[in-house]
Amino acid sequence: MNLPPVWQATFDRYNEAMTRRQFFRRSGTGLGAVALSALLGNRLAAAGDTAAGAPAPWKIAPKAKRAIYISLIGAPSQLELFDYKPDLEKRFREDLKDWLAGQGERLTGMTAKQAAFPLAPARFKFAQHGKSGAWISELLPWTAKMADDICIIRSMKTDAINHEPANQLVYTGSMQNGKASIGSWLAYGLGSLNQDLPAFVVLHAKHTSPFSNVQAISSRLWGSGFLPGKHAGVSFRPQGDPVLYLNDAPGVPRELRREMLDGLEALNRRSYEAIGDPEIQTRTQQYEMAFRMQASIPELADLAKEPESTYALYGEEARQRGSFASSALMARRLVERGVRFVQIFHRGWDQHGTLPRDIASQCKDVDQACYALVQDLKQRGLLDDTLVIWGGEFGRTVYSQGTLTETNYGRDHHPRCFSIWMAGGGIKGGQVYGETDEMSYNIVKDPVHVRDLHATILHQMGLDHEKFSYKFQGLDQRLTGVVPAKVVQGILA
After folding, report:
1. Is-contact 450 157, C-beta < 8 A?
2. Considering the domain 65-237+315-491 in this protein, what is its CATH number?
3. Phi and psi dihedrals of 136, rounded to 5?
4. pTM for the full model?
5. What's the pLDDT score for residue 297?
6. DSSP labels for 215-227?
7. Spatial distance between the Cα atoms of 318 and 390, rounded to a whole number of angstroms
8. Residue-by-residue DSSP string for 50-89
């Protein structure tokens, strides 16, 4: 493509400048080139390169094509939801200070200096549901209805005791900054099923019920880290247009917009050939994706065409743009259209005080919509190859933080055990996996580390976690890291 003289002159001046990158590129011969190549690894390749299109020794037969991760930020209490401990009722207010000293567990700064650690039994009723007889709290009546569709894992554990490192570990595989999120790994390894939509979409659900504490989160939880930037999660806005600037600017027809992008692509291509910066291609691909999304997003976001039966299933809150119910419905529409990984963030589960009131409110926000999502996927024949994960970053303590009364208490952070559930995508529903001790403090059977969860998700999506890697700074980076991790065979169908 011929460039206008002014553009050509600017382009030539830019490429004549000796940048640091160009210096290494032009002088990197012999051992210097080998060393630089080892350090930069795949970043020397085009940003468009993806494991999905290359020979991949890490690929195995998949059970799922797509996944939805319902991320409950702040850590829901396992004691109030899935880990039933009826014998604790008779130990109400028992001081656990001496017992805790023998556990060797580190305490957070929020409770370490408490004079006493009174035992706080859950104040909610439990009942058994489904063929497995799973104990599920009265706070989750809709979840109880699908006990035979889900696998409850009560023996999750993690390494972190505070929110930010715990969230980074569960969503990026490391407590260190700069790592790629699980959605980015899947987008890189599997590619897209729909070229008009991102492979990885993030939804931030608003609250429709009262709550006290919203835990802050950062874009690191859906970022691409060292992977090419195009694999980062694309956040859809809960209000207005899901993506900004969906409409062309006034006076700029679609054909002119296409011509402008073609010219920009030509400039970027020549810059890449001269400089070799993969982020140049990343920008080009983002422009192209944005152009295609201008046509695909309006139809996707138009929930008005959903039948009344949909709102009967998800609840009236699904009509409120940005609510959790609306986000769950949008997640179904996204995976139905080929989005590889959808992550719904719902904050407000960090209940250090007024836990009985706040957890009831939070459950009301999500319970029916989670049930509806699973049933909707099943009705459409999508559940078998769509993996659904529900859970937070760690658990909560058996003792109360702050004042304990008959009706009110709080719980501190607890990394040694917590509960999640999974459904679809080759997971065996209707079972409860793992056990904790009588205090819901330690795991006594079938522990599942966060890294094991990652290995299992990758396995179900058709990726061998031990071989699935990306070279960065001379190291073969993996989602599961270098610490041994295992696929949890016991929960697979």
Report:
1. yes
2. 3.40.720.10
3. -130, 140
4. 0.85
5. 75
6. ----GGGG--TTS
7. 19
8. -GGGS--TTB---S-SEEEEEEETT---HHHHT---GGGG
